Amino acid sequence: MAPSPLPLKEAQSTRSRRKVAPAAADGGDSGDKLEQLLLSSAICNGEDLGPFVRKAFTSSRPETLLHHLRHFARSKESEIEEVCKAHYQDFILAVDDLRSLLSDVDSLKSSLFDSNSRLQSVAGPLLSSLDSFVEAQNVSKNVDFALTSVISCIKLMELCLRANHHLSNGSFYMALKCVDSIENVFQVKTPSSTLKRMLERKIPEIRSHIERKISKEFGDWLVEIRVVSRNLGQLAIGQASAARQREEDLRMKQRQAEEQSRLSLRDCVYALEEEDDEGGLGGDENDGYSNGNNGLLGFDLTPLYRAYHIHQTLGLEDRFKQYYFENRRLQLTSDFQVSSMTPFLESHQTFFAQIAGFFIVEDRVLRTGGGLISKMEVENLWETAVSKMCSVLEDQFSRMQTANHLLLIKDYVSLLGVTLRRYGYPVDALLDVLSKHRDKYHELLLSDCRKQIAEALAADKFEQMLMKKEYEYSMNVLSFQIQTSDIIPAFPYVAPFSSTVPDCCRIVRSFIEDSVSFMSYGGQLDFYDVVKKYLDRLLSEVLDGALLKLISSSVHGVSQAMQVAANMAVLERACDFFFRHAAQLSGIPLRMAERGRRQFPLNKARDAAEEMLSGMLKTKVDGFMTLIENVNWMTDEPSQGGNEYVNEVIIYLETLVSTAQQILPPQVLKRVLQDVLSHISEKIVGALLGDSVKRFNVNAIIGIDVDIRLLESFADNLAPLFSEGDANQLKNALAESRQLINLLLSNHPENFLNPVIRERSYNTLDHRKLVTISEKLRDPSDRLFGTFGSRAARQNPKKKSLDALIKRLKDVS
User: Fold this and answer.
1) How confident is the model at residue 134 (pLDDT cuts 50, 70, 90)?
2) Within the chain, how many helices (H) and strands (E) appear?
């Protein structure tokens, strides 16, 4: 658009000012012109005028600057005036055009007014109809909205009713789903502010109510599961015990089969049937997530999983996990409490069963709980439990002074280990505690056996045991394999041993079984050497010592001594059974046990019993041997039927043998008789050597020879009882007296000086005794030895040989 023309007065004033400006500009000098040009250039270029202002004030010439600025302004006004003049004509033309248009505008305005009037008259009825339509449409929309709101409220109320129904029936999960639907779908969209306020208030209350109810159910389950865990643990351990018993029965059948095969009694075929004991405790691996129950074990995890699911739905999963773990940990800590009012022997089964049930439940929760508890948490609980159980066992074992009590607890703990090992829990620490108390248990067991053996020996009447029935024979003889024949005897049967033998055998067998029971299932597979070590101690220290004490203090009379010696022979057979029995129970082949057999562990008691019996018999024989004093040592005729003392001795020995052979084994009887005969031989030699016999003749020696022959005949008559070698050993017991008599009756006594002959025929003679006895020999009739003081008489060659022998022996001495 062209600029509007200036008013007349302003144009005239501008022209008057333009005439004054040149006159003022002509008065400046050249320096002022330069500054004016610089200032004009700076203003035209849009530069900063600050330096010009500072310079003006610095030079104290602000009026000059102001003059230059005014001059510049006047110069620009002239330019503006020139531009206005250039556009003034165009502006006048435009104004003329506008004035010509005014008449057209007026005519157009009147035309528009007429059109508007006609339009108003035509559109009036139409607008009234349109208003009615709009009003009707608004009413329809309001009705539709009201219907929609009513339908929504009806659905909301139905959902609320359904939620109330689920709440009243205890279906908390379904109630929560209804509440979630109400909150997510209807609460925001509900048109009723009253319902909305009600929902905002009630929904949190419902969730809180459900949380309280489910927490109460879970708390009740926590209380109930403790009782269930105890019963569960007892049932699980009971099933482990039953399984162990079945294994023992199978082993027993196998041992019987092996024993019969070893003895080749008859051809037998055994089929060891194994029962399936799996699944009784493990349950179904595909237990449902919702219940996790087990019909066999009788415990139900439904309340737990329900509470867990509800808390998941409430968004409180982590809090419930922590709550569950803390409560279970507190329950486990409570289970660790051992009552000081009740003996541990009475409460140990409940104590360990409670812990076993706890971890069986936790194993099920771990496998089917959907992450309710982690494997690490269960392992931490188990480590705590193992540590506490080990501590309790250490403390209780240290206080126990009865082996049977310790064994009962050990057996139950080993069953606990077997039970929980099936669920993957490591139990080595518990087994280590049991192994560590192995020595204490056996010491207590030895102490108990020492008392039992002492009582059994004290009750012994030293009488042969009478058995009236076959079951008594089986119980007292066959069960310990001490029979001498496989043929069942007729009843009533009088055994060669007294009641002490089966009593002691039962004690030893019980010791073996208790020892094996303690060592079994304790983590050590090969424990026969341990059992054998303590069995050796029981036999060699306890039983042998008790028998020695019995022999030294309670045995009076030959019959009692004979009974004890017979018992020792039977116990020697029983010891073989003890070691075989220990090997069988320990699960090792019998050949290995027999390969490692040692000497008879009761040898001290056996030797003492035989020595006591021999001593009593010697004492009895000594009573008869006193009759040797009645022998006529200078008799004119030799005795043909033996001297009185030897007849009495033989009668007594024959009576003794007839009684002893009923109870004493041949070897024992042989050793005793051998000792007695040796003693008789020593007494005969001692009589010839003693001061009571001053001299004797050949007839007396011949009589003694008859006596010895009678004793040798007695030994020969025992040949049916013994082997030929044993009978010869009995005769050899008389060797000293026989060799002495043979030498005295020999025609060449100087042969004694021949080492070969002496070793073959006179090896038992002592040359000092021989000198003393030979010097007492007198026989005027035969002049065998003559009168040593008579040099004039003609000497018999025998006497001369004997004198030479005596002289040589004296020189050697």
Assistant:
1) very high
2) 28, 2
